[in-house]
């Protein structure tokens, strides 16, 4: 976020089996969720279509709730060491988890015309719309009518859209190289010591978060099965406890801007050698905590499972409230900085983000988030041929 705040008894559903996935819908690709495929024309009568996997929808919903809570905790960190510790712990893994899942469901992406169209309509168009909307909102809510429009400098939450656009375009490259994860880590390390990269397209974030997307591309269903082992779940409890204790100790000693991955070490006024050290250390901590987080994500259908389909809606829309709360001085109330106030802020953040992920909100904003835009694209001859073949069959 370029102008970021300090800096977003039931039967279990099995994880997906290794198979060639069906072309994802825009919402599925952009939010990193599992796709469903209709039965083939030759499928036996009565065969049911593939169902969404509850595990990934649950994971995305829980991750986006933590994103919203992290944004709500940020103004409290100056006066509460506990809030700072929770903030640092959550920022270690919530976006890496979201990015890894996005990478996992980008494995089938190639330069096929239909997938490129979905990338444009499901990522590029929402980026343009929300970048303009956020700028207008800042001009009005922050009483800053001269604030400039800049489509090259993502504002607040829109960095994720431009990053996803770049990452997905590079997917064929990561599927081609022999050692994609070490290579992406090397790129992230070099970015951390390269202040000249600048703010255009928030490339620092694009490059420093890149390894998590590449890990997602490299993962297979069995890797998620490993995380579901009882031993991993049990080990995750003391690991999270240690992470919270360490964060509580580090809160007054460490600059939380390290967790945003938006600055070079020079911009953080740190020695150059800390770039590789912190990049690798935070990467290791993030991978461990993401594994612990996913180990406890329910695999069965929960009351919030359906909301996993709307996480990108909640992510982008809650930014107006998150920023507005600062512009309008909501946190100036002293009681919010007391323990009960902090609990109230946490509950409010979870409630708001949940409401913004609901189907009615999705239907209301689908014209922006998933526009069809058939008028903007030429018809692909290959697709027309496939359509004629299907019709003939």
Automatic annotation (TrEMBL):
Statement: the UniProt record of this protein carries the keyword Zinc-finger: no
Q: What superkingdom does the record give?
A: Bacteria
A Pfam family of the record is Acyl_transf_3
| Residues covered by the Acyltransferase domain | 54-357
Q: Which residue intervals are annotated with compositional bias (Polar residues) in the record?
A: 1-14
Parts of the chain that traverse the membrane = 55-73, 85-106, 118-137, 149-167, 231-251, 277-296, 303-321, 341-361
Q: Which InterPro entries match?
A: Acyl_transf_3_dom, Nod_factor_acetyltransferase
List the residue ranges of the region (Disordered). Answer: 1-50
What are the alphabetically sorted keywords of the record?
A: Membrane, Transmembrane, Transmembrane helix
Q: Where is the composition biased (Low complexity)?
A: 32-47
The record's annotation in PANTHER family points to: MEMBRANE-BOUND ACYLTRANSFERASE YKRP-RELATED
**Protein name in UniProt:** Membrane protein
Give the source species.
Streptomyces hygroscopicus
Tell me the lineage of the source organism. Bacteria, Bacillati, Actinomycetota, Actinomycetes, Kitasatosporales
